Amino acid sequence: MKETIIRRLTYGANVGIGIILAFILVVLANALAAKYPRRYDFIQKQDLYKLSEKTLNVLKELQEPVEFYVFGNPQNSELYPKVKRLIDQYCDASSKVTCILADDYILRDPGKIQKIKNQFNVTDWDTVIVKVGEETKELKENDMGDFKFEHNYYDYGQKKKLVLFKAEQALTSAILELQNPEQKHVYFTVNHGERSILSKEDRNYSIVKEYLERDRVLCAPLELYRLSDMTETNCDLLVIAGPTRDFLEEEVEVLRRYIMQGGRALIMMDPNSDCASIPKLLTSCNINVGDDVTVDPTTRIAGTGWFDLVIPTYPEHEITKNLDSLSIFYMARSVMEINPDNKDYLVTPFLQTTADGWGETKYHGTSYHFDEKTDLPGPVTIGAAVENRRTGLRLVVIGDADFADNFYAERPISNRDIFLNACNWAMQREYLVSIGPKTIQEIRSLKLNRKQISLIRTLVIVLVPALALSLGLLVYVRRRQ
């Protein structure tokens, strides 16, 4: 009897200790999960919700509380659940970030969400209000994603599909903008055949202008001949976008003083241009713009011409360090450093061909090969950043202006990001450079027909339970025997 009691107490103590240990493990696991939260996206080929290092640094240095008001209907919005999950990461990264979601009130308190919408004058779904202190900014769906429209065969209408997820750049930029509400001014030179920021035609720049304005940048055309000095403007960045005619001597002198005194500029020069004064001016900044067209047959897309240049990878630089897709250029000329020993003007290439590319000087034919006597050997630089740390100069030179026009800016390649990153780097807004959009690429899903679905249903609902029951009956019979 005594042995039985001791045995029962031992078994009971073991069970009790096991239960207590299991409870402690569960508590510890939840505590660790709460302190070090991690989320993984098993649907996408890349993690859409992993915050960049720049965003994490911004959140660590927050001085004021940040509030996100997210308005969206989870039933019919592809963007809303992704934005919601991303903002969860912001909240996990900083205790100063809070979020109010529309779907928390849609069913149980629709009047409250309408009151919040009226408070911020929100009229559309898929909108986020970012509030820092007393300052607010509204982000619409086009600020947080790029979409394409596909034919819907069910109702013969158009179906909107998310292709680029840009919410992190939009949210972090809004926080920084509201903390530092200063507006930047970018001027585009005119009257020399440059690309227009006002025209919506393919060869012009209205799309990249819209993207700059989303980041609190005011874009305007500039007539240089009206100025005696750039100090007459509030210019933060001067853009010269593919001039085809030359500048007046007085205009060149204004540009020269601006650059020598530490100005910020983005200069894009196409080949076959009658503008000779700008390449001549750039030689004083340790840059030679070649009279050639860059060719790289090893990266050329099948079926394209010799002068359709593809850049699949990039040298290390702030402008291109987060780009994960190729860029395409048409008839790009070389942009090469003149003197590597020049300590005043530091030149860093960020767009470059492979070693098999070259700068073709006889580019009016139909077929081309490298001529070591006349052509520029690869790798050939077509985009370079110039910095003078003594004067503060930041200059970006690219041997092509087509790459950022409306035709290329809406394609799912890195062209638009290169232009925007170059502008932001020149204006010393690197926090915008390091946060790039993420491509929506879902892992291929398994598609089953009705027969396969029926087979799986029968297997899971009938056969597996029947097998378990049979094994149970077998064990019961064996024990009875």
Provide an overview of this structure.
There is one protein chain. This protein is an alpha/beta fold and 481 residues long. The chain has two domains: 53-171, Glutaredoxin (3-Layer(aba) Sandwich), CATH 3.40.30.10; 183-428, 3-Layer(aba) Sandwich (Rossmann fold). The protein has 13 helices and 21 strands. A seven-stranded mixed beta sheet has the order 8-7-9-10-20-19-16, with helices on both faces. Strands 2-1-3-4 form a four-stranded mixed beta sheet, sandwiched between helices. Helix 3 links the parallel strand 1 and strand 2. It starts with a helix and ends with a helix. The model has no long low-confidence stretch (mean pLDDT 86).
The CATH topology of the largest domain is what? Rossmann fold
| Approximate shape | elongated
Record field, number of beta strands: 21
The CATH homologous superfamily of the largest domain: Class I glutamine amidotransferase (GATase) domain
Question: What value does the average pLDDT take?
Answer: 86
Unreliable residue stretches:
none
Number of helices: 13
Q: Rg, please?
A: 30 Å
Query: What proportion of the residues is helical, as a percent range?
Result: 25-40%
The quaternary structure here is: single chain
In terms of structural class, how would the helical and strand content be classed?
alpha/beta
Could you give the distance between the termini?
Answer: 29 Å
Number of domains: 2
User: Under the CATH scheme, which class of the largest domain?
Assistant: Alpha Beta
CATH architecture grouping of the largest domain: 3-Layer(aba) Sandwich
Lateral strand order in the biggest sheet: 8-7-9-10-20-19-16
Strand content: 15-25%
Please give the largest β-sheet. Answer: 7 strands, mixed
